[in-house]
Design goal:
Blueprint: H1 3-12, E1 15-21, H2 28-38, H3 47-53, H4 59-71, H5 76-92, E2 95-102, H6 104-109, H7 114-132, E3 135-143, H8 148-160, E4 168-172, H9 183-191, E5 195-200, H10 206-215, E6 220-223, H11 231-240, E7 244-246, H12 248-253, H13 265-270, E8 275-277, H14 282-285, H15 289-300, H16 304-317, H17 322-335
Parallel strand pairs: 1-2, 2-3, 3-4, 4-5, 5-6, 6-7, 7-8
Length: 340
Amino acid sequence: MDASDLRAFVQALPKAELHVHLEGSMRPGLLLDLARRRGVELPAGDEAGLRRWFRFEDFAHFIEIYLACSRCLREPEDFQKLLDDFAASQASQNVVYSEVHFTISTHLANGVDGEEVAQALGEAIDRARDQLGVEIRLIPDIVRNIAPAAADLTLEWALAHRDRGVVALGLAGMEGVTVAPFGEHFETARREGLRTTAHAGEQLGPEAMREVLEICRPERLGHGIAAVRDETLLQDLVERRIPLEVCPTSNIRLGYAESLEDHPFDRLRQAGATLTVNSDDPPLFNTTLVDEYCNLASAFGYSRSQLVALARGAFEQAFLSDEDRAACLARFDRSLTPSA
């Protein structure tokens, strides 16, 4: 396939995305609008300047941008605007199902009303389904480098709003901080019927992944690319079929892989790991889910059938009920052209 044929093929594939952050999906134009509404000062006063600011230099700069986006979310309608914009972007790429990480503890600390935010997000989720045919689920994240009391609030909010799109409990934040305080949170989430996922193996190595697997026992791992450095760990992930939510451009932009050609995605795939393709924080990394598939295909020479397998696998690894998964897979299979 040439580049245009490849993009058209990937665009047409129904896709699921399992690792994307709501706050990190804020585009410069929306950030500028919200900042003006809420009186938040930014380093630039126009979209072009914000796009330049988004070209961060390191993880600390990335967090600075992420927190600025979060500070602009003050009222329920702000969260709705963001989720509406996100849903439209997903629909434009034929991403029909998304599981979206969301750091509710940050917003609670900023003084928002958690119940009002849940109501606003629930209405936006319904609108995305009814008007765009896009299903969205929420994954509230515990931030491991924030006081455990914030984790309590995150779990409480997640459990209270399972009827408004919350599907799982997540874990984010700086690796290198022990996850020991959060094992009970994940156990409670499981007991109450929530699914579980956790960031690990992005900033640090296999030992950090092992700690998360042992203490939090997540069903999926966000990133997980460090597994390629430990054959025993990788084999364990393969045998236990623990999926990795891989975000190639994010890993490169944050300095955890030198280039796409050097990225461990294909080595993990060839070792038998269960992988999904994701965009993480698309505007901050100047990428989309379509871009991620196209870039992987170009770098590693993936065929149409291999791309189909990756796209189908995301639905297989999603936190869907058995009935909903079967329906999604049936629709996916019906959508394929004979050439796929």
